[in-house]
Amino acid sequence: MADVRAVVFDFGGVLITPVTEKVAVLAEHHGTSMHELLAVLLGPRESGDDHPWHRCERGEIAVADIQGLLAPYAEAAGLQLCGDELDALMEPTYRVLDEVLERVDALRAAGYRTALLTNTFAEFREQMDRDVGFHRFDVVVESFAVRARKPEPAIYELTARMLGVAHDEIVYLDDFDQNLEPAVALGWQVVHVTGPEQTLAELDRLAPLAR
Prior knowledge:
Layout: E1 6-9, H1 20-30, H2 34-42, H3 52-57, H4 63-66, H5 71-76, H6 85-90, H7 98-109, E2 113-118, H8 125-132, E3 139-142, H9 143-146, H10 153-163, E4 170-174, H11 181-186, E5 189-192, H12 196-206
Parallel strand pairs: 1-2, 1-4, 2-3, 4-5
């Protein structure tokens, strides 16, 4: 196994609390499961389809367009949406995980290359920068800007090229397991994030500060 030279972080669920927490609240209101509503609002695990959330993450439509395009997906799942689900998801009520951000800084100071690899919307960029500070990353790869989203392989290949390291020299952290699969296929080491304590423990193991 090659020595790790770069650490790549997802945004939601890794640097901030996960969006699934908000979906779970909405699911309880709708009387359905979190996983079923997640598929309706955020689309299927696979990518490359026409779901509006995926299209917005690829920069094809605006956030304001998503809610009005969800009806067929809700109908197929037997759900009646209220019309304010996207507003609830976009509310900045999450918590920034400062302990993980501190580790990003420490890794960079120790000589690792750092990157942010995120599926996100153009409208959310300014908020993200305020919350986590893009300055602490050597590379920032945003799905809307590169017209590709995880788990599409192209966005991982682009990230490695921008970092200037080999695939097997990368550790990648994400809370959605489907986003880890293409990274594994390329040879990246991965962490399926379940919380900040586990994140830091895995980084201690895979990208120690003392080398």
